[in-house]
Design a protein that fits this description.
The chain has about 240 residues and is an alpha+beta fold. Helices cover about 35% and strands about 35% of the residues. The chain is built from 6 helices and 9 strands, in the order ααββαβαβββαβββα. The strands form 3 sheets. The protein has a 3-stranded mixed beta sheet with strand order 1-2-3, covered by helices on one side. Strands 4-5-6 form a 3-stranded antiparallel beta sheet. The protein has a 3-stranded antiparallel beta sheet with strand order 7-8-9. A hairpin with a 5-residue loop joins strand 1 and strand 2.
Length: about 240
């Protein structure tokens, strides 16, 4: 560990405003609309999740973050700890005097065609049980086949998002016939542009190849549904490119 890294860890571990100072720096970078920094519990950074509506490429945003942290705090961070999720400009609300009826309407997702590899959300079912537990069942469809994943966890918002995402990834993995391994790296809700979004980080592995995937979806009906859709966005984009 370099002296700069030690200094940055000391700043974050002892100075209660350390993370705020890093957030302020990164929020000033082009392409960073909103972000979530996850500490590692030892004064360092475990993950940085960025929400962007910029046309700037994700790799360039990551390089800008790496350079800014190194220049300002002497902190070197692995680029794999930085995930960039893109938000379409249509997801950003306009001012009331600028947006007409068409601009305020929310477009429904376009169904996948039969030749498309994408999975389509069929149903998200949440069942509460005694002891503050919830069970989530997610149905995903592709062509005429339906794949169901199920998971259980505590009944509070963050855990329900994790449960829903885990169930979705289980169903998605079934759809691949076991050729792809999918696991949830992290999920959280963030506020940006006056709205709430769910940001999901997923690990996809095929044989010895592994990739960190990200998806972001605006919360419309529930955070559980948004969590499922964020995972689907990440997985569909990846499998569609393979």
């Amino acid at each position: 560990m370099t002296s700069g890294e030690h200094e940055a860890r000391d700043m974050m571990g002892l100075d209660p405003w350390g993370l705020r100072r890093i957030e302020k720096l990164l929020l000033g970078l082009e392409g960073v609309g909103s972000l979530k920094i996850v500490p590692d519990g030892q004064g360092g950074i475990e993950e940085i999740h960025v929400l962007s509506s910029s046309s700037l490429g994700p790799k360039q945003i990551v390089r800008n973050i790496e350079s800014a942290l190194l220049a300002e705090f002497g902190l070197q961070i692995d680029h794999r700890k930085i995930s960039i999720a893109r938000v379409r400009s249509s997801e950003i609300p306009q001012k009331a005097d600028e947006a007409g009826p068409e601009a305020q309407a929310v477009s429904a997702p376009v169904p996948a065609s039969s030749s498309d590899r994408r999975l389509v959300l069929g149903n998200v079912h949440i069942e509460r049980a005694a002891g503050q537990k919830v069970t989530c069942r997610v149905d995903l469809a592709h062509e005429d086949a339906v794949f169901t994943g199920e998971a259980e966890g505590p009944d509070f918002e963050k855990a329900r998002m994790e449960v829903a995402a885990t169930a979705a990834l289980e169903a998605a993995q079934q759809a691949t016939g076991g050729s792809v391994l999918l696991s949830l790296q992290g999920i959280d809700s963030v506020g940006a542009f006056g709205q709430s979004f769910v940001l999901a980080s997923v690990n996809g592995s095929v044989r010895r190849d592994s990739e960190s995937l990200a998806g972001v979806v605006r919360v419309r009906d529930s955070v559980e549904e948004a969590a499922v859709l964020a995972c689907l966005q990440a997985v569909n984009r990846w499998t569609g490119n393979r």
